[in-house]
Amino acid sequence: MRMSINVQILVGAAAGVALGMLLGALPADAALRVQGLYVASLVGGLFIALLKMVLVPLVFASIVVGIAGLRRQQNMQCVWVTTLLFYGATLAIAVLLGLLAANIFRPGADMQVEMFADAMAAFEAKRLPFPEFLTQFVTGLFQNPFASLAQGAIVPLVVFALILGVALVQGGERYATINRLMEEMLDLSLKLVGWVMVLAPYGVAALLARLIATQDVALLGTMPTFVLVVLGTTLFHGVVVLPGLLWLIARVSPLALWRGGRESLITAFATSSSAATMPITLRVVEKNFGVRPATAGFVVPIGTTMNMDGTALYEAAAALFIANLVGIELSLGQQVVVCFMSMLAAVGAPGIPSAGMVTMAMVLQSVGLPVEAIAILLPIDRLLDAVRTTVNVEGDIVGSIVVEALNPPTADATAVVHQQTLPTRT
Ligand code: ASP
Questions:
Q1: Average pLDDT for residues 182-202, to the nearest whole number?
Q2: Which residue among 31, 248, 261, 263 is the one 20 to 30 A from 282 at the CA level?
Q3: In whole angstroms, what is the distance from residue 391 CA to residue 235 CA?
């Protein structure tokens, strides 16, 4: 019997963890370990490169087609509003959870910042004052589309695709050929994703093996309270809050969520990149949760670039950790600022590994905390990044199912769409 790709990825993940433990147990210079890590980097890198290869045409086509489909179904407005409300609300819950846990457990209060003096002195802090971030963010939204296509700049690409989608629909029959071209491009890109998926179990195994073999567990032990607070709260958000909302709104059980979303969640953990995982997320929500391509094509790319619950939670908790470490008591007002900035920082962070670390500078600066303190967090970021990326992607999956449930197709819209869509994807 042939295993489904979903099960194959699970087996790949288990094999990767076992292999990682094995390689990790070998001395650092053992030939087997060096060669094993090299092969793992090669296979894992190839998997990520292939995902990134299909990402750009896929994001572009899925948004344009999504917008066109939604406008045709005449529920564009509602989908917009529900998407933004759901993403905004879950981001806010995540930040509040992070702040609450950090206030209760006070990580860093029992440590001295001098312990990290060397690391902080050697760290070249990238300052990111809020006005600069805002200018960068706003002007970064609009770019020559060919430049963003070529550079793989996802955020301006999403924005351009949104605008183009609206224009295409307004133009109606005049642009029927481009419309059709986009639909075919989307179909074709998803076919390529299907091919890349064949490599997914091996890619996931390789990435996890490398992660486990090279993660310095002792480093995590140097700041146990902080690591536990972040992991515990992020897991709480991913295991209780998001599935709870999904159950309340769409009546999809947590088990169905994890089983159906497994391919995407495991890939997110292994790659630490929600952008690289997006092709799989899009496939998963359509195939396993029956989200219509029009909704998925809109909600998933927007979520991938902007909705990062795990990152928002982390930024807030980390700011409080650093405040405790340097002995600054943040007032309620300052915590409100941290809350707001963490949400912005998560929205602005691109879906790539450790991106949250860069935008964190802005959160720290907003309340006068030393940006150099990021140096303390970097060495332990690999595992934490893997966990928060998984929750980021889970938020996108939940978001698309919820938005679909809140905007069911109307009878006449279904008829129109059926006339216009391509034959079913394989
Ligand atoms: N790695 C995260 C993601 O891709 C972003 C972050 O660093 O928090 O979703």
A1: 92
A2: 248
A3: 8
In the chain, what are the domain boundaries?
5-419
- Tokens in use for 268? 């997110």
Closest CA to 233 of 333, 316, 351: 316
Rounded CA-CA distance 282/187 in Å is 12
Asked whether 384 lines ligand 1 (CB < 6 A), one says: no
What's the 357 CA to ligand 1 centre distance in angstroms?
A: 9
Please report the pLDDT score of residue 125 as a whole number.
Answer: 63
CA distance 349 to 362: 11
- pLDDT over 90, % of the chain: 57
Q: Is 35 within 8 Å of 136 (Cβ atoms)?
A: no
For 60-93, the pLDDT digits (tens) are: 999 898 888 877 766 778 888 999 999 999 999 9
Q: Tell me if 382 CB under 6 Å of ligand 1.
A: no
Check residue 122 and give its pLDDT: 67
Cα-only R_g, the chain: 22
**pLDDT at residue number 121:** 67
CATH C-level class of 5-419 = mainly alpha
> Which of the listed residues 264, 267, 358, 392 should we mutate to test ligand 1's pocket, taking the one with most ligand atoms within 8 A of CB?
392
Between 316 and 170, name the one with better pLDDT: 316
Alpha-carbon distance of 135 to 349, in angstroms, equals 14
Q: Lowest-pLDDT range, 146-160, 194-208, 387-401?
A: 146-160
What is the per-residue DSSP string for 331-374?
Answer: PHHHHHHHHHHHHHHHHHS-SSTTHHHHHHHHHHHHTT--GGGH
pLDDT at 1: 55
What is the model's pTM? 0.88
The Cα–Cα gap between 58 and 55 comes to 5
Q: Which of 419, 16, 8, 391 is nearest to 208 (CA)?
A: 16
Residue indicated by tokens 């969640």: 265
Section 184-210 average pLDDT: 93
**In angstroms, rounded to a whole number, what is the distance separating the alpha carbons of residues 361 and 371?**
6
Q: What distance in Å separates the CA atoms of residue 118 and residue 169, rounded to the nearest whole number?
A: 58
- Mean residue pLDDT of the chain comes to 88
Residue of the CA atom closest to atom 3 of ligand 1: 351
